[in-house]
Amino acid sequence: MRRCPLIPLLGTLLVLACKPGDETSGSSDSGTSAGPTGDETSETETLTETETDPGSTTDPESTTTTDVTTGSDSEDETEFPETDTDETTDAGPMCPNGLVEEGEECDDGILDDNGPCVSGCLNNICGDGKVWLGVEACDAGPQNGAYAGTCGEDCTTESIPKCGDGVLQEEYEACEHFDTNQDGVLCDPEQCSWGDFRYVFVTSLSFTGDLATELVDEDITGVARADAICQALAVNRLPGSYYAWLSDNNNLPTSDAATRIGGAQDSPTATYVMPQGGEPVALNWNQLVTSGPQQAIIRDESGEEVLPLPTAVWTNTSTSGHSLGEASCNNWSSLDGAGWVGQVKTGSEWTDKAPLSCQWMSVHLYCIQGVEK
């Protein structure tokens, strides 16, 4: 006898037919199928009653059906939360957003290279190359504090190291304003170096109109004698060759003081200074022969002041360095007559003041360094 398997379906027991041809005989009897036994009939009836009982109180709608294929409930399916595929990641601090976050020095919501908070949410500090308007006057970054640069170390223009700041920067300067070297030469205020200079002084000695003195040979007279006096006084005191700011009326090439000195050709840009003299007498030759000395030439060849002031100086020379054509003590060789003088002061009177008796004893000479002899 072959028994058919029972398969539960949709909560109700259903009887499925046996597949023919799969029977297995339990004995050696013929293959004729026998009817169901009593046990089998009873089991079948019981299942049938369960399926068709009209008096059942079971609510059909509440019956749970099972999907044969999947074995899951078709109506009461288990719901799973949807997976959010857009993963949330920590993007770090947002600059600028007005909030100071980790890794930021500042965040005012407005990044401005001329304000307190600059790109990258960094504080605007002196030396970063960004000028904080109203707080910093300048900012040249790594170049702050460079000599003759554009900005000082403290981001001000006043602290820029430069010529004239009163601090000697030995790497770049030989001297600073108002410094004098061992020869008494004033520091060039434009270059902070001793530069090219020429000495000028008033003689420590005074003379009559014939320039009488034992300093030079008596055979030398006139303007040549005056030049020799200047040179004799400068020897062993000052370097270079010296000529007197003195002219005669001979109408010779040597008659004009400027020609003999040769300042226009020898040293047009040289600064003229007094020995131990402080401020320059003239910044260049042109200034000397157009405006005169900006400081009265009051020091002698040794750097000492000549007193009393203002003292008279034999000249017969115009402010341009040429002969006045006035009386000149017979071209500086006689005590007769008069000679033209200047006074130790500034302005045109430094060389062109008035005539004076050739016998006057207390008259000096101006001596100026010029072309080498």
The biggest beta sheet, please?
4 strands, mixed
* Record field, number of beta strands: 12
Q: Which fold name corresponds to the CATH topology of the domain at 197-370?
A: Mannose-Binding Protein A, Chain A
Widest sheet, order of strands: 6-12-5-7
According to CATH, the homologous superfamily of the domain at 197-370 is Mannose-Binding Protein A, subunit A
CATH architecture of the domain at 197-370: Roll
Element pattern in H and E: EEHEEEHEHHEHEHEEEE
Any idea of the CATH class of the domain at 197-370? Answer: Alpha Beta
Q: What spatial form do the alpha-carbon principal axes imply?
A: rod-shaped
Radius of gyration, CA atoms, in whole angstroms:
60 Å
> Whole-number average pLDDT?
80
What percentage of residues falls in helices of 4 or more residues? 10-25%
